[in-house]
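Write out the 3D structure for:
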Amino acid sequence: MTFDYSLDFKNIDFRCSPELYRVGKGEQGVLLVEPYKSELLPYWRFKTPEIARESSDKIYELFLNYLAQDDFVGADMARKFLQMGYTRSRRYANHKSGRKYKANPQKAGSQEAEKQARKEVLPLEIDPVKAESAAIFKEKWALAKTHEKYLQLMKKHQQMYE
């Protein structure tokens, strides 16, 4: 089932109401779902490989703690933060500004304009430091998304709620 953006995220505590949570695709909802966003966001950093290592280690530790508590929503949110660490540092590894497109496709006025904006990719400016940060997060993300207990809890959550 897709992530439900229509929920009142400012007033929902997903630890108390896990039945409202939908996994969605990729990183959907990563900056919306509380209290997990507030628990994980302070540790999410990727400026240098050292910072990325410390960040990914801490977020993975929280991931394991959520699993130990059978808290699938927390574990999935930690997995999303690890994935976002990879994707964002990879974007900065490819584009110094962090911007991939010449114009922001999400601000395009129509679907056609959005399609066109996605064709206008800025040239690559490879940053090996950010690429190393991305590799660090990718490793932890891979551990999380293939963790046996995580997969069991996801299946159970989807059978119960999605």
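The radius of gyration is 17 Å.
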